[in-house]
Amino acid sequence: xxxxxxxxxxxxxxxxxxxxxxxxxxxxxxxxxxxxxxxxxxxxxxxxxxxxxxxxxxxxxxxxxxxxxxxxxxxxxxxxxxxxxxxxxxxxxxxxxxxxxxxxxxxxxxxxxxxxxxxxxxxxxxxxxxxxxxxxxxxxxxxxxxxxxxxxxxxxxxxxxxxxxxxxxxxxxxxxxxxxxxxxxxxxxxxxxxxxxxxxxxxxxxxxxxxxxxxxxxxxxxxxxxxxxxxxxxxxxxxxxxxxxxxxxxxxxxxxxxxxxxxxxxxxxxxxxxxxxxxxxxxxxxxxxxxxxxxxxxxxxxxxxxxxxxxxxxxxxxxxxxxxxx
Length: 326
Hints:
- It is built from three helices and 20 strands.
- The chain is mainly beta.
- Strands 11-20-19-15-17 form a five-stranded mixed beta sheet, with no helix packed on it.
């Protein structure tokens, strides 16, 4: 399994947004309110902030900008259609951004491929939620360059996914929809993908720390002490056998767009590869749609680094699936 890095959000959201995002009552001139993102979260009635994750080349060498958001409402999910209250400009308003917003921090939910001559141009995503407007501009800022496919420090790579057993593989940020399905209102639609992951090796330093921790625990009377380093159980045989297996991969299904509610039979699917990089595991669930129309659902596939790669923007893979519901 791969090493879990320290979570840095929401402080990283604050760092990304202070000075570049504002929230004001709709219809009034924007006034800087950087302290707003430091205020206690509310159950509902709060703003939603766009969040720049980073930018970098995709597998074809084209630059993509990866974007998420921070919904400051603890319990309130919102639907904001594409238009004046959910727009990206210039050239928009529709760049594939979500219209359904889950509570809390959502990482890398969509990506925008920009032309090779994009240069210093900027795009601005503006959201109005609960009467408060927030806006953030993003561009190819060198400070936000990210390698989406390999962490430069520990060699971690995002999971590899397929939407058909013998189909093509994909990894990294989502750029457009990769599959189109059809469904009927109120009838469960099966969603299936296959996922694999290349484990990150535990370093000599981490192994040495595990040995010292086990020795210290044994000296305190725990003769079957266990340390978990880099997602691996390192310790006594009895404790290791008793410890629950931690998933190597977690598949998370969420609504991205659509006119009605979407109910997933199992929205979170843990997979255990036992550190076998050649093993593709099947993850299957169903989605039921409450109203007719065009939907997009999102599969976010994490390794053990977790949401947002533990705050380092690598490594996870995302697929967007279009569903036509009649």
